[in-house]
Design a protein that fits this description.
Elements (H helix, E strand, L loop, with lengths): L7 E6 L8 H16 L3 E3 L7 E8 L2 E8 L4 E8 L4 H18 L4 H26 L3 E3 L1 H15 L13
Parallel strand pairs: 1-3
Antiparallel strand pairs: 2-6, 3-4, 4-5
Helix pairs in contact: 1-4, 2-3, 3-4
């Protein structure tokens, strides 16, 4: 089996993540494209891919449904968002600071903010890897891209019912 078989070939989002805002939908689409561009995705105990990932909101959690490329169910994982609360809140604040800093000159400030953003992003990616490890093994880069998608789904879609309280 080649490493090409241990990857995602498709990511679909439940309708509840669709927004009326074209910018939100664009950010979600870009996050999906980044994830599909390069990833390592290995369901525990399964030896045939590539895989399809469907993400939906279920009772305040994210349901990650994995199927093979023939649409045969492989595994589902219900991801509690509670452990990510602080990280999502911190990441949101850092991103807002970054966008504010772009409007004002001073590369030193941007560099410091970006270092902080990367640190929180790495911490969230590691938590995501740990939370998924019983069902799916992913590498660090895939975890970072998947966290970016989760962030785009939750934070940028503030009016959706699954958004955790960030304040």
């Amino acid at each position: 089996m080649t490493s090409a078989e241990y990857r995602l070939c498709d990511v679909s989002l439940d309708r509840s993540f669709g927004g009326r805002d074209a910018r939100i939908e664009r950010e979600q689409a870009l996050a999906v494209i980044d994830l599909l561009e390069s990833n390592t995705f290995i369901p525990v105990g399964h030896d045939g891919g590539p895989y399809r990932l469907r993400i939906e909101a279920v009772d305040g959690r994210l349901a990650l449904h994995v199927a093979d490329d023939q649409d045969e169910h492989v595994v589902s994982h219900y991801l509690s968002l509670t452990p990510f609360r602080r990280l999502l809140k911190d990441y949101t604040r850092i991103c807002e600071s970054y966008y504010d800093a772009i409007r004002h000159p001073g590369p030193e400030r941007l560099e410091a903010i970006d270092m902080g953003r990367r640190g929180v992003h790495n911490e969230a990616a590691e938590l995501l890897r740990a939370r998924l490890s019983t069902k799916v093994n992913i590498d660090n880069d895939t975890a970072r891209r998947l966290f970016t998608l989760i962030y785009a789904l939750l934070v940028r879609n503030a009016d959706q019912r699954i958004l955790i309280e960030l304040t």
